[in-house]
Write a structure and sequence with these properties.
Keywords: Signal
Structural class: alpha+beta
CATH topology: Protein Transport Mog1p, Chain A
Protein name: Sensor domain-containing protein
Number of helices: 4
Helix content: 25-40%
Strand order of the largest sheet: 1-2-3-7-6-5-4
Mean pLDDT: 88
Largest sheet: 7 strands, antiparallel
Organism: Streptomyces radicis
CATH class: Alpha Beta
Length: about 200
Amino acid sequence: MVAGSLTAVCLLAVASAPTARAAAEPVGDEAFLDGGEMPPHPDGWYAYGPVEGLPEYPVFCFEDELPAEGASHTSFWTELDTNGLQVIVETDDEDEAAELATALEAAAADCAADWLRENPGSTAAWDDYGSIVAADGGHIYGVHTAPPQGGHGVRLFGVGRDGTRVTLVDWGQMGDLEDAPIGDFSTTLAAALGKLGA
């Protein structure tokens, strides 16, 4: 009788104890930026998402750091060459989230040098635009790349965290670092961090 009761209790515990990932609430639409919160563009922004998982193509500079598990993303674009992306990753705990945010920041800081090694004869530059005081903190980086036979491109990356969630916000267009809208992008990242816990 005792053995049977113990077995029943164990089976009930196994059936009713979800994993940490399964127990986590999915990232809702309200946690994501909308087009109106991206850096202003004269033609406005289009958006697709959020959708579960990572984008179909690897995210420039973060191919090896962004996990597919727990990820959702929204893509942004304009009528011209400007585009953007927001990825949110729901992790199992705050330690994992902090570790992921640190890895993403390191990848952003190393991006220009890594790209140059893979593209000899090209030029690249980067800058650290500092921290954003919101949620558990954010940081902004800029990267400029110029292949020998191609156009110049500039990207801004914002990495931030709120609890168990980490976000990467990406903005890009043709040009160089002088063309990057640092102030507007800072506002965008602050908005992303403000919504991240929703």
